[in-house]
Design goal:
- The complex is a heterodimer of chains A (293) and B (402).
- Chain A folds into 3 domains: 122 residues, Sufe protein. Chain: A, CATH 3.90.1010.10; 63 residues, Arc Repressor Mutant, subunit A; 80 residues, GMP Synthetase, Chain A, domain 3.
- Chain A is built from 11 helices and 8 strands.
- Chain A is α+β, with helices and mostly antiparallel strands and 293 residues long.
- Chain A is 45% helix and 18% strand.
- In chain A, strand 7, helix 10 and strand 8 form a beta-alpha-beta unit.
- Chain B has 12 helices and 13 strands.
- In chain B, helix 2 runs parallel beside helix 7.
- Classes of the chains: A alpha+beta (293), B alpha/beta (402).
- Chains A and B meet through helix 1, strand 2, strand 3 and helix 2 of A and helix 8 and helix 9 of B.
- Chain A: May be involved in the formation or repair of [Fe-S] clusters present in iron-sulfur proteins.
- Chain A: Pfam families: Fer2_BFD, NifU, NifU_N.
- Chain A: GO terms for molecular function: 2 iron, 2 sulfur cluster binding; iron ion binding.
Chain lengths: 293, 402
């Protein structure tokens, strides 16, 4: 069992502001059932003063997810939107007299739901900012891509430095090995001197494709079709939008779209495609196709 | 029994020490303190106690020789020793065949060995958690050093056909190891009639204390020790024996033999009563695993649209202890690898609860769980965004075998 504070337990066993808010004019939905945490935050905002008159929530998740949601609604009621946007995940954790480090992502989810609800009220687009790569630090919801880019941009060389720059690894420390692996990966890219005396090993390259264009397209379709039932079982789906040389553009749909594990899903499908085709291909979200066009 | 006395249904995690086990251990903390390797009378008395314990373990496992029993510190040590030994003893072979649903003691080691260059083949399971023997046959090769397959799954209780699989492994010259941590004491085992080379067991899963395990090594199995040093355990596991716990394990094994029939009749009856009571009272839940072929004490039930840790917290408040394969109990975001391997969708995989019984449970306890659990699930579904008051807000999952 986790070492939950009395306040976390109190808000879990007796959550405040539960259920649908019928006249909500701002709704923020973050997380997904795939991730094990999902929160729908509903706020009723007075348009004249931009004050949050009421807030309610529905949460699928663990004890701290439910407690964080409950705490969030209590904190923001009566605040103006600008005041509410200043509420950090640490404020939510502090309100609950702290959360176990491994559960800090629950408070992050609360903050994101709040941002999403305010954006929804204001008619703005809002997207979670940690869905680029596989989640490495679960305590602070930091993904591999952010860690990798921060290491590269700042020439970081230790886990401690990564923690200072990104917070990743600052909680339960379970991800330290993963951060070390990213450090090694980036170091290999940027530092060739230590390996200069070794004969470089050529990367393993799959045999050259022997398929015709038509056969290749069919193979891609068949592979995607074999994966679709798995995604559909989780209320998601995938569709091919465009095949451009090595790049295959797809749309993830339903529950798969916007999921925190989206990058991991794409990576897994990409691996299957590479195996099926016997050549390197990249699976990219269709949004990148638009960017390229 | 008092109405609010705690109810323990998490026996696949650990069991209560049997009072008879505790009583047998006590002298070995006080007057029986000798080192069993010593040549004087202090040591001899303890040495004889170890010998007796070894014979009791041998009897429970149906091992042909008492020298095939090696005492270790836990199931994890036994599992790690088995695989590392097989790789070192057969350097000409570099493949490990295992399953996707093993305990972390196997999977985490295999992940590491894979990084070091070994080839790991992880067999998949079907929707009921069963292995495909054709897939297994195809995975075996002259490069296979060891096959490691659990006898029974810790989450679902699903029993694997390890006797047949051991014969198939031998056909390619590979060693066969089974992690029998959950199976020992719950189903009859007679190792001398099988081709199983190595077996792991853990004391605290069968009413012995924590911190003691066994590695069964069939005579003639090529072996390399994990711990080197003293000549304890015939040099196969150096380190002074945890004598009190080993004595306790011996008694626990003796008691397990005596209670084997009870385990398969009364404990099974209680488990089935619990399961049918829950299924009748709670909508949108189902039993996972191979229902027809599983441990008599285990029931793993998936409750859709609610999260396992939240269920556990509410059950705990009501004095009921169970466990969950949910992500949040482990601090991970991914639910149980066993549920995912069986293709249980996320809508249900996050809400699985494992009830594992023992001979110390009673009808009254089961009645109370059946009374409490429906309210717990209803309370959480009321909060869930995937439940709209009268039913699921998203598609419900019905397993093909339901």
């Amino acid at each position: 069992m986790w070492d939950y504070s009395e306040k976390v337990r109190e808000h879990f066993f007796n959550p405040r502001n539960v259920g649908a808010l019928e006249d909500a004019n701002g709704i923020g939905e973050v997380g997904s059932i795939q991730c094990g945490d999902a929160l729908r935050l509903m706020i009723k905002v007075d348009p004249a003063t931009e004050t949050i008159l009421d807030a309610r929530f529905q949460t699928f998740g663990c004890g701290s997810a439910i407690a964080s949601s409950s705490a969030l609604t209590e904190i923001i009621k009566g605040m103006t939107l600008d005041e509410a946007l200043k509420v950090s995940n640490q404020d939510i954790a502090d309100y609950l007299d702290g959360l176990p480090p491994e559960k800090m992502h629950c408070s992050v989810m609360g903050r994101e739901a709040l941002q999403a609800a305010v954006a929804n009220y204001r008619g703005e687009d809002w997207r979670e900012d940690h869905e680029e790569g596989a989640l490495v630090c679960k305590c602070f919801a930091v993904d591999a891509k952010l860690i990798e880019e921060t290491i590269r941009a700042n020439g970081l060389t230790s886990v401690e430095q990564v923690t200072h720059y990104t917070k990743a690894g600052g909680g339960c420390t379970a991800c330290h090995e993963g951060i070390e692996e990213i450090l090694v990966k980036v170091a290999k890219e940027t530092c060739t001197a230590p390996t200069a005396d070794k004969k470089p090993t050529p990367p393993a390259i799959p045999p050259a494709p022997t398929l015709t264009s038509f056969q290749r397209m069919r193979k891609i379709e068949e592979t995607i079709a074999s994966i679709r039932p798995m995604l559909q079982r989780d209320h998601g789906d995938i569709e091919i939008v465009e095949i451009d040389g090595k790049n295959i553009y797809v749309n993830l749909k339903g529950a798969c779209a916007g999921c925190m594990m989206e990058a991991a899903t794409l990576n897994g499908i990409q691996t299957r495609l590479v195996e099926a085709l016997g050549e390197f291909v990249r699976l990219l979200p269709a949004s990148q196709l638009k960017r390229a066009a | 029994m008092m109405d609010n006395a705690p109810i323990y249904l998490d026996n696949n995690a650990t069991t209560a020490c049997d009072p008879a086990v505790v009583e047998a251990m006590l002298p070995f903390f006080t007057e029986q303190f000798g080192n069993p390797s010593s040549m004087h009378s202090f040591g001899n008395k303890v040495g004889f106690a170890l010998k007796e314990a070894r014979a009791r373990v041998q009897a429970l496992l149906g091992a042909a020789h008492d020298s095939e029993i090696v005492f270790t510190s836990c199931g994890t040590e036994s599992d790690n020793t088995a695989i590392l030994s097989a790789l070192k003893a057969q350097p000409e072979r570099n493949q490990i065949v295992t399953t996707a649903v093993e305990h972390a003691a196997i999977l985490a080691l295999c992940d590491q060995l894979e990084k070091e260059g070994y080839v790991v083949t992880r067999l998949s399971v079907d929707k009921r958690g069963r292995l495909d023997l054709d897939e297994y046959r195809a995975a075996l090769s002259p490069r296979t050093a060891i096959v490691s397959v659990m006898w029974a799954n810790n989450e679902t209780g699903t029993i694997f056909p390890v006797e047949v699989m051991a014969e198939m492994a031998h056909a390619v010259g590979a060693q066969f190891h089974t992690d029998a941590v959950q199976a020992v004491g719950k189903i009859a085992i007679d190792l001398k009639k099988t081709e199983i080379d190595i077996l792991s067991l853990s004391g605290h899963k069968l009413h012995a204390p924590k911190g003691v395990g066994v590695l069964y090594l069939k005579r003639g199995t090529r072996f390399r020790p994990l711990l080197r040093g003293g000549h304890q355990e015939r040099g196969r596991r150096a380190g002074t024996e945890n004598t009190a716990s080993i004595v306790g394990l011996g008694v626990a094994c003796e008691l397990a033999r005596q209670h084997m029939a009870f385990e398969n009749t009364e404990v099974r009856r209680l488990r089935d009563k619990l399961e049918s009571g829950i299924l009748a009272a709670v909508p949108h839940c189902f039993v996972t695993g191979d229902v027809a072929n599983r441990l008599p004490n285990t029931s793993n039930i998936a409750f859709e649209f609610v999260e396992g840790e939240a269920i556990l917290l509410l059950l705990n408040k009501a004095g009921i202890a169970a466990s969950s394969g949910s992500a949040c109990t482990s601090g991970s975001l991914e639910p149980s690898h066993v549920m995912r391997a069986m293709g249980i969708p996320y809508t249900a995989a996050h809400g699985t609860i494992r009830f594992s019984l023992s001979r110390f449970n009673s009808d009254a306890e089961i009645d109370r769980v059946i009374a409490v659990l429906p309210q717990v699930i209803a309370q959480l579904r009321k909060i869930s965004p995937y439940w709209n008051g009268s039913g699921p807000a998203v598609e419900s999952f019905v397993p093909a075998y339901a």
